[in-house]
Write a structure and sequence with these properties.
The complex is a heterodimer of chains A (256) and B (272).
Chain A (H helix, E strand, L loop, with lengths): L7 E12 L2 E12 L3 E5 L6 H7 L10 E9 L2 E2 L7 H7 E4 L10 H11 L5 H14 L3 H4 L12 H13 L5 E5 L7 H14 L4 E5 L3 H7 L2 E6 L2 E7 H6 L4 H7 L5
Parallel strand pairs in A: 3-8, 3-9, 6-7, 7-8
Antiparallel strand pairs in A: 1-2, 1-4, 4-5, 9-10
Chain B lengths: L1 H28 L1 H6 L3 E2 L4 E2 L2 H31 L3 H14 L4 H19 L7 H11 L1 H13 L3 H9 L4 H12 L1 H17 L2 H7 L16 H8 L5 H35 L1
Antiparallel strand pairs in B: 1-2
Helix pairs in contact in B: 1-13, 3-6, 3-7, 3-10, 4-7, 5-6, 5-11, 6-11, 7-10, 8-9, 10-13, 12-13
Classes of the chains: A alpha/beta (256), B mainly alpha (272).
The complex binds adenosine-5'-triphosphate and magnesium ion (MG).
Adenosine-5'-triphosphate (ATP) binds next to strand 2 and helix 1 of chain A.
Amino acid sequence: MTTQTLDAIISIRNLDLHYGQFQALKSVPLDVRTRKITALIGPSGCGKSTLLRCLNRMNDLIPGCRVAGKVLFEGRDIYASGEDVCLLRKRVGMVFQRPNPFPLSIRENVVFGLRVAGVRERARLDTIVERSLTAAWLWDQLKDRLDEPALGLPLDQQQRLCVARLLAVEPEVILMDEPCSALDPIATARIEELMIELKKRYTIAIVTHNMQQAARISDFSGYMLLGEMVEFGPTAGVFTSPKDKRTQDYVSGRYG
Amino acid sequence: MLVAFSALASLLLIAVFILKEGVPFFFKYGLGHFLFGLTWDPQAGQFGIYPMIVASLWVTLGAMAIGAPLGIAGAIFLNEFVPRSVLRVVKPTIELLAGIPSVVYGFLGVMVLAPFIRAHLGGPGLSILAASVILGIMVLPTVISISTDAIGAVPNSYREGALALGATRWQSVTLVTVKAARSGIIASIILAMGRALGETMAVIMVVGNAVKVPHSALDSARTLTANIALEMGYATGLHREALFATGVVLFVVIMLLNAMATSAIKAGGRRA
Ligand SMILES: Nc1ncnc2c1ncn2[C@@H]1O[C@H](COP(=O)(O)OP(=O)(O)OP(=O)(O)O)[C@@H](O)[C@H]1O
Ligand SMILES: [Mg+2]
């Protein structure tokens, strides 16, 4: 089973994941296509976050978590022994549900990824700070406040700072786990616009509870239920003419 | 309520008593003379505590130089590299160490450490170095316990954020966790300093107690607390007042340290 879709930067076949005795993912497939937005939807507890966290191996941090199956990133199995997890996480970055800027200054937050990669030159760091904040639409508001603590920012700016912090290390894929669930509708709209803008240069995979959001911004959607991928395909198809009865029930709002 | 009040009242009483007995001496003898006088010779009416201030400083700083890095490293290790279940057993055990009587530490110092220093580094053995090592070990429970709590209170989301940016485990600890827990860690060190400065029994046993300004860590010296404990038993008149005045000096310094620790903890609470 190595049928890899040509333009998929990440390709998963038959992924099983156990938390101890509990099987959270059951033979799940997924293709994340280059420079598209792929959305994972489904009711609470169905394994969306779990699947997303497999893509940059954040599940490694959870004791008792076992993964079986292949996760191919640009054709290489990221779970193969000897793979460099730190390098993987630089190339496949993650934005979390709750904005989690570090208790450092705005500038130090943005350059964090570069610091851990050993970049020291002040001039280069400054250029990257400007470029990353500009790309996350924060530069104009924050350019004179770079040394203020990041935790003093409003939540949506904190979340966009977390995006900027990622962009600074120039990842190829950006994973977002319900990035708007802590934000109000206006802030949510701004993040959504930002994602559509970012799609020009980055591949995005997003978990969302909000079906309108998935319908608005994503190109591909996967509907998950109880650890299984029930349906996966172009968003328009999944939402307007779902093939599976269970997907139909979900997108027409019968549960979730 | 009643208990809290009586505790507070007795604390106040102690403070008032020490101040009443000690403060008049400052005026009789002169504060400058007292703090910076080089000779302590009660028979001759000389009450300069400068040599003992220097000794207390050396011993306290030495204890911190040993206890702080070890304690912080221990706290980091316990939090980041040891399973929760082990931490739950180890931490109370370490806190239990705080309950070992200081005589026991002093005894170990006399029997093991001082001979070791004498044999391998020279000098009398009973020395500032010996006292620093013993005190550094004695303050470990304080440093580890408070620092562990501070590091444990750092939200896991910071750790995840750092690792998700490609940081190694070690980088996430040093660049994020320790910085986020900074105020708690500083507070633990300040409180430990207070304990080291105030410790008496173990110090008397290992520091040598010679009343002179020490010139090296291998010299014998006498700390402020040791001086009070050694002489209070037979002191009378002005001599006795001078010892109380020494107590006032210690009291003020320790209060200052505690205030600093409290404000460090508060500052951390505001930021988080
Ligand atoms: N660390 C863990 N240990 C054990 N079980 C876990 C762990 N994390 C998640 N689970 C279980 O795995 C299943 C999938 O969890 P996951 O967080 O991936 O769901 P989700 O689809 O993201 O849900 P939500 O929409 O609520 O975020 C759930 O049943 C959950 O209880
Ligand atoms: Mg989730």
